[in-house]
């Protein structure tokens, strides 16, 4: 065997061993990366399934069959009530006739808050807001897994079911009604109830949601003994 031929054979021998080691390293690294991504995805999906959908509406009244929605707001929190979403907020246009049919309480408070004037200027209706809200929910939560929350939120759910069915069906059928928890606390832990944060009650949807989250967080820490550092 010539010296040159021997050098070539040795060279290719080392190259083949290097490639074998490198490919082995590559596949091991790829396996770890793929499974790490899968575990991260699983964790992310679990976290998303535990999220809570906070929705508040202002309406022209409380009769679902005849009253209409004036304003909708939504925030998403994780299970520990940390806000994880952007703000969703829309004012809906209602006709002068609809606004004139409001009872005295609604006339007074919705005029004072500026909602009546905002509704007159709005170009949005139930269908367009339903579509926007659906897209917002789709961005932050999996379909059919997360409950809707708020104070006396069953009423908002009734209006949502009638006027915004696409968004309504995207959420889980269960609700988290902070008002119900409040009533239980008032009876069983009156000292905690009396110490709960007071509400401004300005009757605008986004402000009401933030107050509802704050109220439930107070009960979470003072009744359910959740870790305040969560």
TrEMBL record:
**One GO term describing the cellular component:** mitochondrion
Q: CDD domains given for it? A: Orn
Which residue intervals define the domain Exonuclease in the entry?
A: 51-225
PANTHER family, alphabetized: OLIGORIBONUCLEASE, MITOCHONDRIAL (PTHR11046)
Q: Which residues form a coiled coil?
A: none
Query: Which Pfam families does the protein's record reference?
Result: RNase_T
Q: Which UniProt keywords apply?
A: Exonuclease, Hydrolase, Nuclease
Q: In its keyword annotation, does this UniProt entry include Hydrolase?
A: yes
InterPro entries from the UniProt entry: Oligoribonuclease (IPR022894), Ribonucl_H (IPR013520), RNaseH-like_sf (IPR012337), RNaseH_sf (IPR036397)
Q: Does the keyword Hydrolase apply?
A: yes
The entry's protein name is Probable oligoribonuclease
Q: Which family does it belong to?
A: Belongs to the oligoribonuclease family.
Q: What is the lineage of its organism?
A: Eukaryota, Metazoa, Ecdysozoa, Arthropoda, Hexapoda
Single Gene Ontology MF annotation: nucleic acid binding
